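We emphasize that the prediction below concerns an isolated chain of 220 residues; any contacts that depend on oligomerization or on bound cofactors are therefore not represented. The input was used exactly as deposited, without trimming of termini.
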Amino acid sequence: MEDKARKKLSAKQIILTLGVVLVGIVTVFAVRTNSGEKQNKIPPDEVKLILSAKLTLDGNPISIVNKVLKVGDKVNFNFDLDVPVKTVEEQKTINASKFKGVRVIETVPSLDTPVCSMQTAELNLLAPEHKDVTFMVISQDLPFAQSRYCGAKGVNKNVQVLSDYRTKEFSKANGFLIHENQLNARSITVVDKDDKVIYSEYAKEQSNGLDLSKALDALK
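Result of the prediction step, given as a token string:
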């Protein structure tokens, strides 16, 4: 009788142990699955932006954080941006709202890339033709890299080169930040004295340049 009782108890223990192990496996699998979903899932509003903006980078769809600017929208300039400097000791910021009147905003992924470099240099040459307009170039480059670029290309005399690398808040708020790589999109925006967008264009394929003459025509 004792042997039978022991066998029954042993069988119950085995079943109970197997049940605990099975629950543990299921739990681990569920946690990993949910974790993966959280890491890879794009918020619903950004999924809509992928479909509506139809922007690509090297042929792959990208999404713009928060919104895609269009004519009639307002740009929020009340954010601090870094100015190009050579050393850490020189680092300083400027609030973008300091720039008044009509403004042309060029955003680029990086001034260290050929297309961004060439397009910004072109904007620098065209800017003097519009003396009452402020030209701004904003990227996520470090201010030190921007300083090297400006020195090498003679830029920052006619355009204001600025970095949003600290918080990215200006770029997030105004629809300039690419969700996938956290760099600025290639775009050109013209804003009137009331901060209202009168021209906006994003490069449909982000590795290609923009025709700046179209934006400058909006200044006439």
